[in-house]
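Example 3.2
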Amino acid sequence: MDYKGIIMEPLVFLKLGGGTITYDSRESTPRIDVIDRLLSEIKKAKEEHGFDLILGHGSGSYAHVPASKYKVNEGLKYEFSRMGATVTCNTAKALNTVIIEEAIKIGLDTYPFSPSSFAYAGNGRIIKGVTDGIRKSLESGFTPVVYGDVLIDDVKGVTIASTEEVFNFLSTEFGPDKIIIGADVDGVFDSNPTQNANAKKIDRVDNSNIDTILKGASGSNKSFDVTGGMHTKVEMLYNMVKGVNEKFGKPSIGYIGNAAKEGVIGKLLSGKPVNECTEFSYR
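Structure, written as tokens:
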């Protein structure tokens, strides 16, 4: 990939789902063992295959809790809205700090980028941002780390931007070759696999079946997830893959895979066969 004339390695976006890296039943409690395992898989894959990476992560039992309590996604509607936005923003940053600290311990050269400091929203969607710092960090050999955050919004005052929304914006700036969403299920199913033992996994999503799949996309559905669940993940990942194809004139491939299972993320990063995932393409 060419960033302003600098020849770079293939670029991958990877999100680590909040439900995988935190304890659902324990507010603001990280799964350190899972975080360390995933970061180790990332480090090993990068060393062996030489790709560039923008890493993102969800908020799980961190920011989703105050975001729901203070109704942050409704904007500045209540007396407590400004306080709620600040608390939620600060809590999201706290989990990001955990990720960065664990990356330091294993020798993965990450660099944190708070979306609230580089992006601006309009009625719930990112409409502009400054990505020069992220671009330069990639050129300098860092792995930038972003996350779902509270943004200033031109219409609502404030809004929540999920990691997928942040990735969607960044994909229009960088044109990733591969986009991986690490979830806590084996991909996309025709019904919720945690509730229906007969749920069938969908192996591939493309322009021939996306409309049908969006009518029944199921998967993780945590009660405090305020960023849209599996339906939104499917829709946004497909649109990112499609958008890269149309804007940059090259294929981009996407995956929703089970980050809770050891080795899955490492294999997806390395281009090895994986059963615990759904592949996305535009053709």
